[in-house]
Amino acid sequence: MGGKAVIVGAGVGGLATAVGLRRAGWEITVIERRAELDGFGGAAFGINPPAQKALDRLGLGEAFLRKAVPYRQAAIREPGGRTLTRLPLDRVERRGGRPERLIARPHLLRILLDALDGIEIRYGERVGDPAELSGYDLVVGADGIGSGVRAAYFGGRTAQREVGTMAWIGVADTDVDVHGETWGDGAFFGYTPVEPGRTNWYAVLPSPAEAASVRPYFASWHDPIPRLLAATDPATWIGYRMRYLHPALPTYVHGGRVALVGDAAHAMTPNLGQGACSAILDSEALSRAVATHADLPAALRAYDAERRRPSQRVALASRSLHRFITTRHPRLRDGVLRMLPV
């Protein structure tokens, strides 16, 4: 089966879907509301073994491995530096047959764009009227938590919700010896490898929190947190209010020709580091369903059956973890963590 598909959104989910559908023989157009991809932004994505295997099936595995770094040791600490527990990254590797890996967002987007050489990407366009997309056999909404495709075809079934915290992310031009997260009272700070000589970090504080408040807030926390903040130009930081979609959608497909992927379908808080993984898994599953089913409505039903419930479980778990991390009763939380094996 082949045809003409339009993908709205040129993030990880949209570009990965374009790669998969192109491999399946579809004619692809990508529409992106931004005038350009703004240098792709900072930060890093954690890619778990299932999402890595999905990249393999999309033909992107080797390119991914050339740029990604393994993530094998990390811990959760308290602001004074005491280790509360270690992250079970060894268990992830045993179960998945490969380690968790981290990749800079620019590198992952470049891998996807390189695989789409020759595909039309129309920048600076917004989609508000479904009639604009009537000339395509398949419409894929990959346009994020504020998805215009979702609003146009799925109505008000779900809406953006804030969790009451503000996140700041950046990449410091320095290596550090420890990685993981540090949990305080209503706030936390994470730090991971991203590539040699650089460290990805993210800071989460109660909203509202301006960039100027980040360094003072974490000034007394253990090394390397103040050092990472000092080594990063605040002009390069990216800040956003943490949000998710609620209630969960009853379906990710509509009318036998429309499908949602990634944040457009199930935007989640980033606490489990599964946003990019879920988008990749959605994209590969949708492309595979379209390639293996005789008609499009059946393919979309198969995609929805495969991905909706798993992705919604991850979103709920991530939101629940956010509440646990940012509790105003850290003694009880930390006591629970200390009971876990280190």
TrEMBL record:
Domain named FAD-binding: residues: 5-314
Pfam families recorded: FAD_binding_3
Family annotation (Gene3D superfamilies): FAD/NAD(P)-binding domain (3.50.50.60)
Domain of life per record: Bacteria
Keyword list, A-Z: Monooxygenase, Oxidoreductase
InterPro entries hit by this protein: FAD-bd (IPR002938), FAD-dep_Monooxygenase_BioMet (IPR050493), FAD/NAD-bd_sf (IPR036188)
Protein name: FAD-dependent monooxygenase
GO molecular function terms listed in the Swiss-Prot or TrEMBL record: monooxygenase activity
Signal peptide range in chain numbering: none
Coiled-coil spans in chain: none
